[in-house]
Amino acid sequence: MKPKIFIDGEHGTTGLQIRALLADRGDLEIISVPAERRKETAARAEFLNKADVAILCLPDDAARESVSLIENGTTRVIDASTAHRVAEGWTYGFPEMDKAQMLAIKTAKRVANPGCWPQGPIATLRPLVAAGLIPADFPITINGISGYSGGGRQMIEDYEAQGENAPEFLPYGLMLRHKHVPELRAYAKLAHDPIMQPAVGNFAQGMITVVPLQLGALPKVPTGAELHAAIADHYAGLNGGVVEVAPLVDFERSADIQPEIYNGTNKMKLYVSANDARAQALLIAVYDNLGKGASGAAVQNLDLMLGLGR
Ligand SMILES: NC(=O)C1=CN([C@@H]2O[C@H](COP(=O)(O)OP(=O)(O)OC[C@H]3O[C@@H](n4cnc5c(N)ncnc54)[C@H](OP(=O)(O)O)[C@@H]3O)[C@@H](O)[C@H]2O)C=CC1
Ligand SMILES: CC(=O)N[C@@H](CCC(=O)OP(=O)(O)O)C(=O)O
């Protein structure tokens, strides 16, 4: 029998993309609540309990409600919202974090899909902390830019209504309470909250994260080559090519380091650039906020949970 997959919130930005990614999957049975009943609790409860895997593409409160509606002890869940990313009993759905994480996702009943912003910084920082090149208590700042689809349907409508008048570059998170800080701290293995300083641009999709490092503050200053080697070693043979590590940067700029380059894919590319004489480095990640950042990651986790991915 084909596994039954229910996407709760299938008409939203992430839900629609997951539907599209699963459209040709003859190995799965997609079950859907009739559109006019999609917000009825009873209808959602029925489908949540009928599913082998429920993928929640909902605001946080609705995602919590969906989980509470599952009574059968068998439905497995992938939650795309922020509700459960550092919650007990949930497995963080970033398979490339380490080998153990990939195995944990395969058998997990509850998987919390990562936020789009945390994935890039975790991908670069975690191997450096694990290798002891960056101490856990090192002060970390995360900069970056995301397409406006990161803000879901409301932000998409706002940007598209403004057209050319929409801001090209809009820094946000200015009150320093971005919702991704807890998962960033937990899974990058940091002792303190990083500063999260995002921006949104006047393009639909795609993102870049940048972590600048003032290495001169460290008692033992790692070189750019050492940082690069630790990150490259971590991903070598780990992930079937989802995360790629570029050679140590030797250019001022590149047309490859722009946010939209991996749109429509589940790929993430990591770059390390450094000036050893100045003891400074940048850790850069380029990916699609709706791909590896949301729907691509959800489908990758679904495949792992169903034993269809490596
Ligand atoms: N966009 C992105 O880049 C990313 C988003 N996420 C997360 O994924 C989740 C979904 O986000 P996104 O797709 O962007 O959001 P959207 O606003 O585009 O979609 C949310 C969907 O949920 C539906 N919905 C809202 N409340 C309920 C309810 N009580 N019962 C049933 N359906 C409901 C909405 O229906 P209606 O429109 O009819 O109100 C809509 O279809 C969020 O938690 C978000 O944080 C995660 C990573 C990246
Ligand atoms: C551009 C934009 O607004 N992006 C969203 C994050 C998108 C994302 O990762 O979603 P989650 O809500 O699932 O964490 C933000 O920064 O809040």
From TrEMBL:
Question: Which SMART domains does the UniProt record give?
Answer: Semialdhyde_dh
Q: Which reaction does it catalyse?
A: N-acetyl-L-glutamate 5-semialdehyde + phosphate + NADP(+) = N-acetyl-L-glutamyl 5-phosphate + NADPH + H(+)
Which controlled-vocabulary keywords does the entry list? Amino-acid biosynthesis, Arginine biosynthesis, Cytoplasm, NADP, Oxidoreductase
Localization of this protein: Cytoplasm
Per the record, the major location class is cytoplasm
Gene3D superfamilies under this entry?
Answer: Dihydrodipicolinate Reductase, domain 2 (3.30.360.10), NAD(P)-binding Rossmann-like Domain (3.40.50.720)
What domain of life is recorded for the organism? Answer: Bacteria
Task: List the molecular function annotations (GO) for this entry.
Answer: N-acetyl-gamma-glutamyl-phosphate reductase activity; NAD binding
Q: Does the keyword NADP apply?
A: yes
Q: Semialdehyde dehydrogenase NAD-binding domain: from which residue to which, for each copy?
A: 4-105
Give the enzyme's EC designation. Answer: 1.2.1.38
Catalytic machinery residues: 116
**Cytoplasm found in the keyword field:** yes
Pathway field: Amino-acid biosynthesis; L-arginine biosynthesis; N(2)-acetyl-L-ornithine from L-glutamate: step 3/4
Q: Which GO terms describe its cellular component?
A: cytoplasm
* GO BP terms in the entry: L-arginine biosynthetic process
One short Pfam family name for this protein? Semialdhyde_dhC_1
Family under the similarity heading? Belongs to the NAGSA dehydrogenase family. Type 2 subfamily.
HAMAP family tied to this protein = ArgC_type2
The record describes the protein's role as:
Catalyzes the NADPH-dependent reduction of N-acetyl-5-glutamyl phosphate to yield N-acetyl-L-glutamate 5-semialdehyde.
Protein name (record) = N-acetyl-gamma-glutamyl-phosphate reductase
Q: What is the organism of origin for this protein?
A: Pseudaminobacter salicylatoxidans
